[in-house]
Amino acid sequence: MTPEEIASTSDLCVKCGFCLPHCPTYKVTLNEGDSPRGRIALMQAVVSGALSGSTQLYAHFDRCLGCRACEAACPSAVPYGNLIDGVRDLRNRRRSGFRSLLNKVALNLLAKPVLLRAGARLLHACPRNSLATLMRLFGDGNVKRAISLLPDIVSPVGWKSLYPAIGSNRKHVGLFLGCVSQVSDQAALQAAIQMLNRLGQDVTVPSDQVCCGALHLHGGEPQTANKLAERNLIAFGERPLEAIITVASGCGAHIKGYERLPAPAYDVCAYLDTVPWPNDVMLQPLQSRVAVHDPCGLRNTLETAGAVYRLLGKIPDIELIQLPNNELCCGAGGANLLTQPQIADALLDLKLASLRNCRPDILVTSNTGCSLHLAAGIRQAGLEIEVLHPVQLLARQVYTQGASDGGFAG
After folding, report:
1. What is the tens place of the pLDDT at every residue in 372-407?
2. CA 102 to chain centre
3. Measured by CB atoms within 10 angstroms of the end CB, which terminus of the chain is less buried, N or C?
4. What is the pLDDT of residue 334?
5. In degrees to the nearest 10, what's the CA dihedral of 213, 201, 166, 371?
6. Measured between alpha carbons, how far is 170 from 218 in angstroms, rounded to an integer?
7. What pLDDT score does 406 carry?
8. 152 φ, ψ to 5°?
9. Cβ of 155: how many Cβ atoms within 10 Å?
10. Hey, which CATH number is domain 3-94, 1.10.1060.10, 1.10.3670.10, 1.10.10.410, 3.40.50.300?
11. Which residues, in sequence order, are CB contacts of 170 under 8 Å at separation 6+?
């Protein structure tokens, strides 16, 4: 967005304050500058020249988690997400020096699938005690925090180009892998393929796909985000598809906004909720208490959180509950769990308190960042709660008489 576009769009805000009770950063800091209303006032002052873009001022924009809960509450339909992305782009264009270069390097690494796979292999080969040594060497910085968030890294999967469906009533979908998901959430991707195959979906995995670009857009690099989007549009446009399936809701929320999508984009649970289930596909009973965490992108942008409850509700004997304070962001917010640790941890503490109160056996969530953030907090708190993607739980319980799972290349 240009400064003129930021000015005209921000004028839609009437400063009513309906957004304040829904904003997680305002809940933590109680600082007007950390509310949507306050940030809009600040960006208006910056683009008008009334205030200079100081580091202290831009810190208010950086603390925004991008949850977009404010948009759901706004009576004036202010596109706050576009505004915060626009002002971060403006900041990056005006900023120079080492910090700007570091931001570009970090974001560009996510755009290189080869580097991500190489990093995953390195992490898989690195013993836990070596990672602990690295944490001590890096002190209290972002690298130490990133290492502490890592789950047990498995050897990277060699994805096939096609996973054929089970059964005769077949449709064809494409699976978006994501960047971080390929390293930390391979089990969820495999479970998605298993469930899609069981429900009669041939699954194509385009080899030329790249990062969705969400982190780049929210990090003030829209040009890079647009280039990544174009590469994905080409990769998924090579053959006719019924749908493009995403497993990480953060990726899904961003891909939903692509122009000229070759097929409708669906979160995997939303898609599984729409297709007919064959009569011979059954779910084993599960006598467990399962809490559902609704990621912000799934609730506020995709608006498909209900599909998770409907799907898991099919499992016999399950005790399914909504995690208390589900309307509040967990604090992950893209890269904010690394760059804004105080806010991320304050919001995580609220989630951990809810988990201690409801005492589930399993916590399910549909977003990679949420999963990493919550799982790390659960480990550090010593809670015995398994963290899964909803599709993993479905795949664990599903069975079809006489059918086998399409294999995965190791």
Report:
1. 999 999 999 999 999 999 999 999 999 876 555 544
2. 23
3. C
4. 79
5. 40
6. 37
7. 47
8. -70, 120
9. 11
10. 1.10.1060.10
11. 200, 201, 202
Residue owning tokens 């174009």: 230
Q: 133 or 335, which is more confident?
A: 335
Domain boundaries, given as residue ranges, for the chain: 3-94, 281-396
237, pLDDT greater than 70: yes
CA distance 178 to 157: 13
Q: Are strands 201-204 and 162-163 parallel, antiparallel or unpaired?
A: antiparallel
Question: Distance between CA 319 and CA 283 in Å, rounded?
Answer: 15
Q: Which two tokens stand for residue 36?
A: 């949507």
**What tokens does 88 get?**
């971060």
* β partners of residue 319: 289
Query: Among 235, 180, 182, which Cα is nearest to 209's?
Result: 235
- Helix, strand, or coil (residue 364): strand
Q: Cα dihedral sign for 231, 371, 294, 268? A: positive
Exposure b/e, 112-134, CB count within 10 A at least 16 = b: ebeebeeebeebeeeeeeeeeee
Rounded to whole angstroms, how far apart are CA atoms 128 and 18? 47
R_g of the chain computed on alpha carbons: 21
Q: Tell me how crowded residue 179 is: count the other CB atoms within 10 A of its CB.
A: 24
DSSP three-state, residue 173:
strand
- For 268, half-sphere exposure in the C-beta direction (CA atoms, 13 angstrom radius) is 33
CA distances from 101 to 50, 97, 107, 115, 207 (A): 28, 6, 10, 18, 29
pTM above 0.70, yes or no: yes
pLDDT at 83 over 70: yes
CATH 3.30.43 for the 281-396 domain, yes or no: no
> Backbone phi, then psi, for 347, in 5-degree steps?
-70, -35
Q: How does DSSP assign 53-72, residue by residue?
A: --HHHHHHHHT-----HHHH
The percentage of the chain sitting over the pLDDT mark of 90, rounded to a whole number, equals: 72
Sheet (strand 362-365) strand order: 319-322, 289-293, 362-365, 386-388
b/e sequence 221-241, b meaning 16+ C-beta within 10 Å: bbebbeebbebbbebbbeeeb
CA atoms within 13 A on the CB side of 194: 22
Q: What's the average model confidence in pLDDT over 224-230?
A: 95
What's the pLDDT tens digit per position in 247-285?
A: 999 999 999 999 899 999 999 999 999 999 998 999 999
Residue 147: CB atoms within 10 A of its CB come to: 15
